Amino acid sequence: MAKSQAQKMRQKQVREGKRNPELSRSPFAFTDMRTRKTKSKQDQLNTSKHKNRISYYGDDGSFLFL
Length: 66
Hints:
By secondary structure, the chain is an all-alpha fold. The chain is built from two helices and no strands. The longest helix has 11 residues, at 5-15.
């Protein structure tokens, strides 16, 4: 298999004593991002977008007994 132009340039820089840019890569570059886990039905039910927000109008579902 042939080497790419970028790979040739990286190897040339390493031979000249410069830093290898492959060492600066994030460890997440090598993770397999294709395996995904969808939320279960219980996880979907437990999430809500604006949970326990304080309302400016006082209609947050709470009331006061006097």
